[in-house]
Amino acid sequence: MLRDVMLVGAGAVALALGGCSSDAAEAPTGDPPAALARAGEIRGRDTWKNGVTLTGTVSIAPGAVVEIAPGATIKCADGAAILVGGELRARAADKPAKITCESWNGILVANGGKLDFEGVTLENAKAGITTTEGALESRFVSGAITSSLHPLQVAKKSVLVIEKVKASAPAKVTAAEVSMSEIRGSLKASHLDYDAGANEALSVKDGGELVLEDSIIHGTGGGDMVAAYDAKSIAVRYTTLKGAHCGPHIQGVDSLEIDHVTSEDNIYGITMYKTGAGPNVIKDSNINGGAAWLDFQGDHGPVTMQNVYASGGNEILKGGPAPTITKATAPIANARPRD
After folding, report:
1. At residue 94, what are phi and psi to the nearest 5 degrees?
2. What does the pLDDT read at residue 300?
3. Is the alpha carbon torsion for 154, 156, 159, 161 positive or negative?
4. Looking at residue 316, what is its pLDDT?
5. Global pTM?
6. Which of these, 176, 184, 175, 125, lies nearest to 150 by C-alpha position?
7. DSSP code, position 320
8. CB neighbourhood size of 318 (10 A)
9. Beta 37-42 vs 106-109: how paired, if at all?
10. Which of 183, 198, 321, 335 has the fewest CB atoms within 10 Å distance of its CB?
11. How confident is residue 29, by pLDDT bands cut at 50, 70 and 90?
12. Is-contact 200 175, C-beta < 8 A?
């Protein structure tokens, strides 16, 4: 029997997974035909075609392979989830597939499991994709995670690679909810378009690592677009961060690289409260903040800012040692995502 834990928001919901040994469970009366119903544990190989409906927690056992067919629309009962102990994959970039449910818990890649998606949209998942400690390196390309409280959750000792993905928070987030993506392992992202709304976007913490390239991370002033809390490393290149409280908010990172980045239409262009031995380099970038383009406080390792076009509010320099700053006299034209 496969058991694991799915993180939803700040808490954890234990998913006790067991059940049937067949590839497709019998559907309860009134549900879709058995051929289109999935519940319990899946062993061996299975293909989810258009019309498949998920009920409860559907677990893909170690060694099992499930493929989502191109063009398929997968539905689910309220509260459903997918736990991947084997492999879940799709090759649907030319004919996109989707999993659409009014409310479900999303996909969790368990220890030894693997996700390999091309061309899939996940709609209304509380936690879009979660990788747990010990999951195999997983991949998500040419897809979307829409209206999700936690589009991406990457646990320690796991790696998630994403490319050409759109992600968004729900249009409404209640006072009792928190929306963000949390990275404690390694996230390698390129061509990510993330609409955080009034929420935080990417929060890298507890030794997590982020490489973010050719992306647009945007919001409506409520949270920070890239935040580091005792992270191991942050590298943001050729990316736009806009419409936030802070573009980057650095509150603990061993090393930092910001290269050809535009942080604009933010209250603070960049906030830096703690950095390690580095290297910590910000170069060839446009940093704009209404209150301050730079808020630099706390204790730091050496920080170098080269060819930075600063605009908006003044800099706040209360931390030390003070950064070495070389300013550009005009905006950096190519500090944006590359084609």
Report:
1. -85, -20
2. 97
3. positive
4. 96
5. 0.89
6. 125
7. B
8. 10
9. unpaired
10. 321
11. very low
12. no
